[in-house]
Design brief:
Blueprint lengths: L6 H15 L3 H11 L5 H16 L1 H11 L9 H16 L5 H14 L6 H13 L10 H8 L4 H8 L4 H11 L5 E5 L6 H11 L2 E4 L6 E5 L15 E3 L2 H10 L6 E4 L6 H9 L5 E6 L2 H14 L4 E5 L13 E7 L14 H4 L2 H18 L3 E11 L8 H10 L3 E3 L8 H4 L2 E2 L2 E4 L9 E8 L2
Helix pairs in contact: 1-2, 1-3, 1-5, 3-5, 4-5, 5-6, 5-7, 6-7, 12-13
């Protein structure tokens, strides 16, 4: 008797959640992996690989399908569309799965989901795709060719073409599709890096130092994060290096009062609490009860006593916070175009108009939260995107409208490799060009 549910059926369910119901991929995948924790490492790896890969390459997969199917992808029934997309991904990107198995399992899944009448269609399309690799006509237009090759919507590439040279753009596009190790930060006020390394060695986890910060590591060769010793004790946390650099650049003094205005899920705020070594106070704010709950979960796991989570709308002025903070962290809502390697579906969900809307929202928040900064205090502005409208243009706007602030030199807080990359007083990290996500950081100092 076969298993009541197999990996491909789980993949189908997750893909439908993401593409048809708008659930974010990292949330849908986490939910399903938590639900099916009893599956072995190989099955869980297959689910993750096929789900992420199908989303990662979706524009390319649709382009291929449209060459071999009489019914265009957008006209297909959602279940069949998802089955075929994941089938083509396996055919093109997973050498370990035989073509015949891909076709047979896709047909079985279509039948199981009530589409027995389309078994011949599913089988025919996938077999034609498998046989027809050499016959595909790829786009001749350079922009469309890039869009299909890297499954990136054209408007995003066009946006980058205004700012970056062709080689840089292709480097970023290629980097988004690379598999990368997980980056973690050692909570140095709880455990030394030496002790954490010993712990990893005992568990057989592969780790290497990240070159940008002494307490950052890249880890791999483990199954489930929650099973690692030290995770639930809050000895380390998953955080990209670019996000860690925010607190490192903020460099809070002992006993500092810090406000993080858009803190969820709490990585930067907790990092600040760690750097304060039990002194001072960090107030981690966010807009919704759900987001504050995420922050609180991480605070509880990290077991820091000098941080609180609060539900606050960053666009609304909190009178009692005026000129109270030594440091304000404003890591603001953005288009997220620097983290498309981690949030693969974001590129399909984001619209061109949103970039301008988000840049305006960022200005609205900055126009409010600067008031919380004490004289001689600092305001850190950061985003996980690489568009000038949301980054450098907002910095220029802020300095023009708030003469009481100046940009503070960042070089003293950065490793040598990054010091030379500071341009106009700000740091713009690009995926693939740097060993990080795409990220932007500016540090303002309020005059005495």
């Amino acid at each position: 008797m076969g298993k009541p549910i197999n990996e491909r059926e789980i993949v189908l369910a997750v893909l439908l959640e993401i593409t048809e119901h708008g659930v974010y991929s990292h949330i849908a995948l986490k939910n399903v992996l938590d639900k099916y924790q009893y599956l072995d490492k190989k099955e869980r790896a297959f689910i993750t690989r096929v789900t992420d890969g199908t989303l990662e390459h979706m524009i390319e997969l649709d382009y291929i399908l449209n060459q071999f199917s009489k019914v265009k992808v957008r006209k297909m029934k959602p279940v069949i569309r998802a089955i075929l997309r994941s089938g083509v991904y396996q055919l093109y990107y997973m050498d370990t799965v035989p073509d015949s198995a891909v076709c047979n399992e896709a047909v079985k899944l279509a039948v199981k989901k009530g589409f027995g009448s389309l078994r011949g269609f599913v089988n025919g399309v996938l077999r034609n795709v498998a046989r027809g690799r050499e016959t595909i006509r790829w786009p001749e237009d350079p922009l469309e060719a890039l869009s299909v090759k890297y499954s990136m919507p054209k408007w995003i590439i066009e946006l980058w073409q205004k700012e970056y040279d062709p080689q840089t753009i292709e480097t970023m596009l290629a980097d988004f599709q690379k598999e990368k190790p997980v980056t973690i930060r050692c909570n140095t006020s709880r455990i030394s890096t030496e002790k954490l390394e010993e712990m990893f060695e005992e568990q057989g986890i592969f780790f290497e130092h990240h070159p940008y910060l002494p307490y950052a590591y890249k880890i791999s060769r483990y199954d489930h994060l929650g099973e690692l010793e030290g995770f639930w004790q809050g000895l380390f946390t998953v955080q990209d290096i670019s996000s860690m650099l925010v607190a490192s650049i903020a460099a809070p003094d002992k006993d500092a009062y810090v406000i993080d205005v858009c803190a969820a899920p709490g990585g930067k705020a907790i990092h600040m609490a760690d750097l304060l070594c039990g002194t001072g106070q960090v107030e981690a704010r966010d807009l919704t009860e759900y987001k504050v709950g995420l922050i609180q979960e991480n605070i509880d796991r990290m077991q820091f006593g000098n941080i609180v989570a609060k539900q606050v709308d960053a666009t609304k002025l909190v009178e009692e916070s005026i000129e109270k903070a030594d440091v304000v962290i404003a890591d603001l809502p953005c288009s997220g175009l620097g983290v498309l390697g981690k949030k693969t579906d974001l590129k399909y969900k984001t619209e061109k108009e949103q970039v301008e809307q988000l840049a305006a929202l960022q200005r609205q928040i900055l126009d409010t939260v600067w008031k919380y900064v004490k004289p001689n205090g600092s305001l850190i502005y950061s985003t996980c995107t690489i568009t000038p409208q949301e980054n450098m243009e907002n910095v220029k706007w802020f300095l023009k409208n708030h003469k009481e602030f100046v940009l503070e030199p960042m070089e003293p807080y950065l490793c040598e490799a990054l010091q030379a990359q500071v341009k106009s007083g700000c740091l713009q990290l690009l995926p693939g060009v740097y060993d990080s996500d795409g990220f932007f950081i500016a540090k303002f100092r309020r005059k005495e």
